[in-house]
Amino acid sequence: MRTTASRTLLHHYSSRHFLSTLSQNNNSSYHTSQNIRRASSLFMSSSVATASCPPSTAFTSSHEEITLLTQQQAAHIDDVLMETFSTDQLMELAGLSVAQVVQTHYQLSGRGDDDRLENDDEGSVQKIVVVCGPGNNGGDGLVAARHLKMFNPTFNVMVVYPRLASVEKPLYKRLLAQLNMCDVPVVTELDERMLLERDGDVRRRRHNTIVIDAMLGYSSRGAVRE
Ligand SMILES: NC(=O)C1=CN([C@@H]2O[C@H](COP(=O)(O)OP(=O)(O)OC[C@H]3O[C@@H](n4cnc5c(N)ncnc54)[C@H](O)[C@@H]3O)[C@@H](O)[C@H]2O)[C@H](O)CC1
């Protein structure tokens, strides 16, 4: 039972992770919600479920029902999965899933051969900023940034990673080296201009930026501190 639950939870891991990461600020609807509902009901009905609080439901702006897990439930799912899978594997799945959902639900503009944007209508997104925290949730963000850039090397993707100077873990060093290889800039501070300008061009009539919040996951404690 534990193995079955583990396998199924892994299958749904990335979509569950995405919502736990982004649901607070996002008002789009997701095709993944069905998966999340299934995953969490399996989680709650399996022998591995120990969380006392049932998953709750919420609605997107299009009134699509989604299931939200508590901090404790999300941590428990990871505990089960970590018996069989490595952090690298789960992080890769989580980051890839975030990148896929962003690409699926937003019209992302890359640059064409003539350096003009491929999609330049008002609804298109010209920039993606991934803000990464100090823990594994931040690692998920580093992975997401890499995948978005690999989907289309002309996408304007950047990472804000305040812990950059103090990175010691080999996993994080590898992730940062991969971003470097893919030409994804990593900076330590979020400058407001990053959200407003595109490559310094302040004359653009319209500029859309997506900010991916990968700051804190289920190990978040208390009010956000510097
Ligand atoms: N099984 C795994 O390990 C995986 C987890 N994944 C994702 O990672 C997070 C949980 O990761 P963890 O490293 O345990 O913690 P966080 O990323 O949530 O951050 C811990 C980090 O943050 C600091 N901190 C805590 N509270 C605050 C606060 N209020 N203000 C500022 N800083 C805070 C704390 O000191 C630590 O340094 C999980 O949610 C998943 O998203 C991966 O997907 C891979 C597998």
Give an account of the 3D structure.
The chain has 226 residues and is an alpha/beta fold. The chain has 2 domains: 1-85, no CATH class; 108-217, YjeF N-terminal domain (Rossmann fold). The chain has 7 helices and 6 strands. The chain has a 4-stranded parallel sheet. A two-stranded antiparallel sheet has the order 1-2. The longest helix is centred in the N-terminal third of the chain and has 21 residues, at 2-22. Mean pLDDT is 76; it is low at 1-8 and 14-51. Bound molecules: ligand LP7C6HRI. It comes from Bodo saltans (Flagellated protozoan).
Can you write the helix and strand succession as a string? HHEEHHEHEHEHE
The percentage of residues in β strands lies in 5-15%
User: How are the strands ordered across the major sheet?
Assistant: 5-4-3-6
Main β-sheet, in a few words?
Answer: 4 strands, parallel
Number of strands: 6
**Radius of gyration from CA coordinates:** 18 Å
By CATH, the superfamily of the largest domain comes out as: YjeF N-terminal domain
| Total number of domains | 2
User: What is the third-level CATH name, the topology of the largest domain?
Assistant: Rossmann fold
Structural class: alpha/beta
Enumerate how many helices there are, as a single number.
Answer: 7
Can you name the CATH architecture of the largest domain?
3-Layer(aba) Sandwich
Helix % is 40-55%
What is the 3D form?
globular
Bound molecules: ligand LP7C6HRI
The average pLDDT value, as a whole number, equals 76
Low-pLDDT stretches are 1-8, 14-51
Q: What is the C-level CATH assignment of the largest domain?
A: Alpha Beta
User: Distance between termini?
Assistant: 42 Å
